[in-house]
Amino acid sequence: MNRKYKVVIFILLILGEIALNKYARPFKLYLDLLYLILVYISIKSGFVKCMLAAAVIGLITDYFSMNVIGVFGFSWTLAAFLLNEVSQRIDLKNNLFVFLMIFISLALSNIIANTFFNIILHIGFNWQLILIQPLLTSLVGISIAFTDKAKGYLDVY
């Protein structure tokens, strides 16, 4: 059951990200569902697998965002490193800690990406991506793994 649950959640997150990129961006709905997959991989995997997954998922995000290729690949790799290290030292049963872990790591990743966009493309800081997107993404992440049963299915104890 655990494997089926994880596969269904991953597929729904990927389809949700595609739908958001296609339909919801004009409405300024900033939510990053691929980042939740990265959070799970960072919590459950070893260091090398975590870094490779972060780089690949970051490059996919670069492709979706149609910006400079490699910016999110780099910033998500740094965030995945942070997630991998912090997840070993906090209590994943506490939803507040998980919320803060997702929020802070995504905000840090977006600050790094916005800094590169500012240097390369002379685009100012987008506060919606620095504050609103991490908040919404963290709330969705907590709502997916809110109960102990869901955390058991995802093996994140």
Helix-strand layout with pairing:
Layout: H1 2-24, H2 33-44, H3 47-65, H4 71-87, H5 95-121, H6 127-144, H7 148-154
Helix pairs in contact: 1-2, 2-3, 2-4, 3-4, 4-5, 5-6
Based on the model shown, name its key terms.
7 helices, mainly alpha
Explain this structure to me?
The chain is mainly alpha-helical and 157 residues long. 78% of the residues lie in helices and 0% in strands. The protein has helices at residues 2-24, 33-44, 47-65, 71-87, 95-121, 127-144, 148-154. Helix 2 (33-44) runs antiparallel to helix 3 and helix 5 runs antiparallel to helix 6 (127-144). The longest helix has 27 residues, at 95-121. The radius of gyration is 15 Å and the shape is globular. 27% of the residues are buried.
